[in-house]
Amino acid sequence: MKTLKQMNNLDRAYLIATLFPDKLKNLTEFMKKESEYFQKNKELIANSWTEKHITAEFWYKLITDFEIAYHKNGARLYRNKKTFRDQLFDGYDALFSIHATIRFAEQKECSCEMKYAIYMLFGTKKLIDIDLKSVP
Predict the structure, then answer these.
(1) In the chain, N or C: fewer CB atoms in 10 Å?
(2) 60 domain residue, yes or no
(3) What is the pLDDT of residue 126?
(4) pTM of the model
């Protein structure tokens, strides 16, 4: 097994899928809800975008890529660990998936064990931090 420092995003996603196969459906469905949240609030989010390292346009491209993978693969995303890994955590597409995974760790339906595993593998810092409650 690789050390944590030797692991890439694909390795980390596969490990999460291996450790928590019964939670993959919840995680995948949460990712879908997260993408819907961003799409529903697209104009508001784009107008209040302050992130310096990523543009709103690129962020929404990642969300679109996720939605394509979600619709193309359906239940295979949570039934097959390799599909989960390859479709959601490869290349730049991993940015949205990691963000949504860290957000999932903050939810009450995420077990403590899974939360700690997510934080250990992906960290605690979300890629973007948008709070629509504070936007006028």
Answers:
(1) C
(2) yes
(3) 82
(4) 0.92
